[in-house]
Amino acid sequence: MRYEKIMLSKNQLDYYQLFEKITKLPKRDYSLRQLAHLTGFSYAKVKYTLERIAEIVQLIDPEQAALFRQGKNLAVEQITISLNTFRGVLLKEHSIPFQFLLWLVKEESHEVADFLTENFISFSTLSRNIRELQNYLKHYGIQLSLASCTLVSNDELLLRQSFALPFLDGHARGSRTFSPLYHRRKPLAEAFGLCPAGASLCQ
Predict the structure, then answer these.
(1) pTM of the entire structure?
(2) What Pfam families does this protein's entry cite (predicted)?
(3) How far, in Å, CA of 7 to CA of 102, rounded?
């Protein structure tokens, strides 16, 4: 869960946590009041969050999205979308930290104003949403600068690993912790491929 707390906003984390709890329930129909009792969310919050989940699921499967818009009940036994799939779309389409790192990889030149324009957000919104990631990387001696769009560290190997980690963890879930040090014991080919030597964002 630490990964999600770093990469998702508070509201997005609510969507993820409710979806996760729903996927762990016995497969049958539930009223929204039952869901509220079983998940620890209020009735109003369950109703609102299911509507937001439906918007995300709409990007995956419109028929599945309709299940979350039923109003008074949720047919959990009919949900076929996995937590990993939901999580992947949530990251790619809504997570500002994930989108920012992906933009650093994809674009050859980096001006933060371009990212803000492309995503229709302000610098203060970017700064607020990415603060948890910056603080976490700082713990490992890595500085993520928004102004210069760079990742800076004295340890190049650790820098490459930590840069690749959000993408690796964003697509494959396991028991590992969100920590750059984890990849010291794993193959680094994909990590190095995501951050080629000499790239401007790896300084």
Answers:
(1) 0.78
(2) Mga (PF05043)
(3) 12
- Residues paired with residue 150 on neighbouring β-strands, in sequence order: 145
| Integer Cα distance of 4 and 94 in angstroms | 12
Torsion-angle region of residue 40: left (phi > 0), alpha (psi -120 to 50) or beta? left
Residue whose pair of structure tokens reads 């491929």 in the numeric block? 193
Q: Which amino acid is at 65?
A: A
Strand ranges (E), the chain: 29-31, 73-75, 143-145, 150-152
Cβ-based neighbours of 200, under 8 Å, separated by 6 or more: 109, 110, 150
Report CA torsion sign: 158, 203, 167, 93: positive
Burial of 40 (0-12, 13-18, 19+ CB in 10 A): exposed
- Domain positions in the chain are 2-90, 95-194
Structure tokens at 143: 């500085």
